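Appendix B, example 12.
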Amino acid sequence: MAENLEIEQLNSFEIEEDTLKDQFLSFSLGKEFYALEIVYVTEIIGIQNITEVPNVKDHIKGIINLRGMIIPVVDIRYRFGMKMVPYNDRTCIIVVTVNNTQIGLIVDEVQEVLTIQSDKIFSAPHTYKGSKSKFIEGVTKLNDNVIIILDIQKLLYDEKEIVEEEIE
């Protein structure tokens, strides 16, 4: 009986993974559109009271208490070297789970869940613009918008420094 339950759970997991395949959550920073694989997204919340933590990298805005869990929060604008703007009612925190760690990503506005087939994602053009381009997994075009697909691993774990280690 236990073996059947384990097989059913495994099959359920495979179905869930298949459902999430080619699914991306899109969001905006200013006039630019970005997306990340939805498999990493745990939830989307409004901007919260963020507690600053001393002696961490500048892009780590601080930590939030989300239902008793302490979660580090990264400001994606700052991470990309973009001009900072005041938070408003559209500003969101996308809570992602990467390497069994929950991390919040502050974005200007969440857009929608997109289905993007892998053959519609193209390599990012090589630029000399700097740090923002190293987080790009690829680009795609939807309607008249170019959407930049982010590599969440590089975004959070760049330079072999893990975000959560910064706040310990």
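The beta strands are 23-29, 32-37, 41-46, 60-66, 69-75, 92-98, 101-107, 109-115, 136-142, 145-150. The first helix runs from residue 2 to 20.
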